[in-house]
Design a protein that fits this description.
258 residues, mainly beta, Outer membrane phospholipase (ompla), Chain C, 2 domains, 1 helix, 12 strands
Length: 258
């Protein structure tokens, strides 16, 4: 009887621990973006997250993500202004997943972006006019295949602030791949690479270099996610060249979910 009791208790404890491990694995509130690309998912209704960033000269920071029924509102992402940070609103709608095989599902979403900037500065450094309105539209496709997280993010931007020979309409094509490593006692790591190529030309008519981020996502717990990029490249101030930065620990973006 005692032996049976001990075995039963062991079985219950093992089941409880296994259930706890599964709950921990599935409990992450991962942001609906990669390092710099949108993903084909939206935040659950009434769920919110806030981004804080530090390190490096890059500016891919999203200020606030608010989950709505079947959609998401993203404020201050700075996606559609190639010259500087700018207030903007992005509205993303989750769409019916695509089934491409017996076990491959592609989550996808479409979004629109609007940004308006108005200043009374007579000689603003980034805007020769006092009022600029940029518009954008895009889609994001994300698939999980054998621990790989693959992402494709095409985007069309209408740039009201283009001057000289700069493109007033251009296409961005973002591609990303992350790999979800096995669970650890201090969270899960997802090393990855994201690249965005563009048809944009700067004000001198030069083709703009691709943007790149290489690093890892650290899902620390169910509320905290850290993106750490040790290698990054992005055109600065609307010009064509994208200087490469290598730093340790590198560009860090903290996402806290509520």
């Amino acid at each position: 009887m005692n032996k049976l009791f001990r075995l039963s208790a062991l079985a219950v404890a093992t089941t409880t621990l296994s259930a706890g491990a599964v709950a921990q694995t599935q409990g992450y509130n991962e942001p609906t973006r990669g390092f710099m690309l949108e993903r084909g998912t939206t935040a659950p209704n009434k769920k919110a997250s806030v981004d804080l960033r530090t390190g490096g000269d890059q500016d891919f920071s999203a200020g606030v993500r608010l989950g709505l029924p079947g959609s998401e509102l993203v404020l201050n992402h700075s996606r559609i202004n190639p010259r500087t940070s700018q207030n903007e609103a992005l509205f993303k709608v989750g769409l019916r997943p695509l089934q491409t095989g017996d076990d491959v599902t592609i989550n996808w979403a479409g979004y629109g972006v609007v940004s308006h900037y108005d200043t009374d500065d007579a000689n603003p450094p980034a805007y020769p006019d006092d009022s600029i309105t940029n518009l954008g539209a895009g889609a994001a496709f994300t698939a999980d295949i054998e621990r790989f997280i693959l992402n494709f993010n095409p985007e069309l931007v209408f740039d009201d602030g283009a001057r000289g020979d700069a493109s007033d309409a251009y296409l961005n094509l973002g591609m990303g791949a992350h790999y979800a490593l096995p669970e650890t006692e201090f969270g899960r790591f997802e090393p990855g690479l994201e690249v965005s190529v563009t048809t944009r030309e700067d004000r001198f008519g030069d083709s703009v270099d691709p943007s790149l981020m290489l690093g890892t996502r650290w899902l620390y717990n169910e509320r905290v996610t850290l993106d750490v990029a040790m290698i990054q490249a992005r055109p600065q101030n609307g010009l064509a060249d994208a200087p490469t930065e290598v730093s340790i620990p590198g560009y860090v973006r903290l996402n806290v979910a509520f």
